[in-house]
Each structure stands twice: as C-alpha cells, then as structure tokens.
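I am still learning, so can you show me any protein sequence you like together with the matching structure tokens, please?
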Amino acid sequence: MLKDIVHWLDEAKAEKLVTIDLKGKSSIGDFMVIATGGSDRHVGAIAEQLRRKIKEAGADHVRVEGLDTCDWVLVDTGDIIIHIFRAEVREFYNLEKMWSGERPADQTAH
C-alpha cells in the first residue's frame, strides 16, 4: 500500500514527499510518509482524498487527526503513518531529521 499512498499524494499535488522506513526504529508502524500542502485548505483536501482512497483500497482502520486546523494532519493506517504539513509547520517540526537518523546503540549501565 505504500506505493499507492505515495502515488495518491502525488495525484493530490502534495509536495516534497519523503518516505522513512521505521522498521527497527519504532513499533508505531513500518513506514512514515511526510508531505507538504500549499495551504491549510490544500492540506485538508489532500488528507480527505487520501483517507477516501485508502478506505476504497480496503483498509478497515484509518484514523485522521488534525483536520480542525489543517496545519498538520496525520493519517494513520496502522502500518503506515502519513504526515501532511503546511510548509512552515513542517520546517518547524522537522520530522525527517528526527526519524531519518540511525537509532543510538543501547547503553549499558555500570
């Protein structure tokens, strides 16, 4: 479904798409996709279109948060987490930097 989600985001004119593999980094999902919309209305429209297409593809549980302000909308399919931001909000939170780095090695106490 990851390939479809990226395609649907592209169809909705989302910008600066980034896919991050979360396997081995977190148990919250397998992949994270980050995208930018040109305005709060565009962010909301992208999220609604994506939610609809994911449900049409057969996903039972799609959770959407942030549609009230549309600065940052999260679409959660369970395995794939999609963040859709307005540009300045994306820049502020910089999730790519946070999640793209390698996980630090476990420290042992002495």
